[in-house]
Write a structure and sequence with these properties.
This is 5'-nucleotidase domain-containing protein 1. By secondary structure, the protein is α/β, with parallel strands linked by helices. Helix content is 39%, strand content 15%. β8, α14 and β9 form a beta-alpha-beta unit.
């Protein structure tokens, strides 16, 4: 058995040893087959011990993220729109129109969720779980292994990404926030392409790679101009205005089975919604996707929650008067069916205890952002999570061409690179019970359905559902 594993891993190393670390679509396919072979070889080991199982019926209360979890977007249309709004802002700031206004179609293969921006060097990075740099580009130009070593040392390590892997919250608002940014979801993913194109334009204008770049503050300002809640009611954001004027272009309606499932969960359990969106934007998106009675599907709604800090800090919950935040509210004064903003998980847990009449209610949280919704609640407050990762539909056996924009031949698989797990696959495996491409998959099953789960102590365990995207269906 061991010799079989050695053979597979030797082949994997042979396939992926190359000066340029990028994976072609062919190499992604080869790696997928190698992963499947490893799974097949280890099947006897897996069968010796029945896999750990997980069921929604095990929990007293189930929480949800809103965007890209309950509300599903037409990701292609959304990303194109976001990039166009951001690039217009940056051109107005004086950055290269020639580079930024290139058709996004020419750069779409460069896009991938989870890229890390190295502000000063002008680089974009993909890293291993231990911080080793797997793939890197300078602007949009991919670096060879030797070029990565020249930038980051023989071990392809950087103290910043090492620290990031030890505690990813330090890059949120902590000590690393001035050095790196991770493009974690479909709202900030287009910023990576804008960043790369600006670096390309500067290098061309200046005649080569610069010692230091300082463009991120302007890109961040562009993101704020799109997403700041202050601009939703005033009409000051081109991003918000497009969604207001044509929601059907960007937002999908929830399937009736999902709506029935959400109602059933609320009837049998307690349910809550935690979203970073303010109440007005949440009402637009959820109102379109779910319906005007969207609030009736949850026992509690928390808007503008400022995750991941919601799970680690002690901000007060605030009352709402329409869309305006008013005064702080104590947890004992919160009501079943209420809508509040900001807050913290400690008091949320106390509220759940009061409505379930349980001292220690068992809570599950379901969301798509691997730091905000999966890593932080699982690591810092020890609640179970379900990861919603649409990339499962862009790769492997679940491939759906609608999600082509999430598939990058330039960066390779979201889950694996050059025979190694990516940081994101490791977070999924370590900090979620299961991983699904959308909650529609959960809604197909009864509440007591038993799912096989990830087990951090067993590398052969598989919590991907409806099946491992890298293993052919029998």
């Amino acid at each position: 058995m061991r010799s079989s594993f050695i053979f597979v891993n030797l082949v994997a190393r042979k396939v992926f040893s190359c000066n340029n670390i990028r994976q072609s679509s062919k190499s992604i396919h080869i790696f997928t087959q190698l992963r499947a072979t490893q799974k097949f070889i280890s099947k006897s080991k897996t069968m010796e011990n029945s896999p750990k199982s997980f069921s929604l019926s095990d929990y007293d209360c189930i929480g949800f993220d809103l965007d890209n979890t309950i509300v599903k977007y037409n990701v292609k249309e959304m990303i194109y729109h976001e990039y166009n709004v951001l690039s217009d802002y940056l051109v107005d700031k004086g950055y290269s129109k020639e580079f930024l206004e290139k058709p996004i179609e020419e750069g779409v293969d460069f896009l991938q969720k989870g890229l890390i921006l190295d502000f000063e060097r002008g680089n974009l990075l993909r890293i291993c779980p231990d911080g080793t740099i797997q793939i890197a580009s300078h602007g949009s130009k991919f670096l060879s292994k030797d070029e990565i070593i020249k930038c980051y040392g023989e071990k392809r390590r950087w103290e910043v990404t090492d620290e990031y892997c030890r505690d990813m919250l330090v890059a949120w608002n902590g000590t690393l926030a001035d050095s790196i940014r991770t493009c974690l979801d479909y709202f900030d993913m287009p910023a990576a392409l804008a960043f790369a194109r600006i670096i390309d334009s500067i290098d061309l204008e200046k005649g080569g790679t610069q010692e230091k770049y300082n463009i991120w503050p302007d890109i961040l300002a562009g993101l704020m101009a799109m997403f700041s809640r202050d601009y939703f009611p005033t009409g000051g954001s081109k991003y918000f205005e497009a969604l207001k004027n044509n929601p059907s272009k960007f937002i999908y309606k929830c399937d009736q089975k999902v709506l029935d499932w959400l109602r059933m969960l609320k009837d049998k359990k307690k349910s809550f919604l935690i979203t970073g969106s303010h109440i007005d934007f949440a009402s637009l998106t959820a109102g379109y996707a779910i319906g005007p009675n969207w609030r009736d599907y949850f026992d509690l709604i928390i808007c503008y929650a400022k995750k991941p800090g919601f799970f680690t800090l002690k901000r007060d919950f605030l009352k709402l008067d329409g869309i305006v935040e008013t005064e702080a509210i104590k947890v004992e004064d919160m009501v079943d069916g209420g809508v509040y903003t900001q807050g913290n998980f400690t008091e949320l847990r106390n509220f759940i205890s009061s409505i379930t009449k349980l001292d220690d209610p068992k809570i599950l949280y379901i969301g798509d952002n691997l730091i905000q919704d999966v890593f932080t609640p699982n690591k810092h407050i020890k609640i179970d999570t379900v990861a919603v990762i649409e990339e499962m539909l862009a790769e492997g056996v679940d491939y759906n061409e609608v999600y082509d924009i999430l598939r990058s031949n330039s960066w390779g698989s979201y889950f694996h690179t050059n025979g190694e797990d990516t940081l994101w696959e490791r977070i999924i495996r370590k900090h979620s019970k299961i991983c699904v491409p959308c909650i529609d998959e959960l809604a197909k099953n009864p509440i007591d359905y038993k799912y096989s789960t990830f087990d951090p102590t067993d590398i052969t365990s598989c919590g991907y559902y409806p099946h491992n995207p890298f293993e052919p269906i029998a």
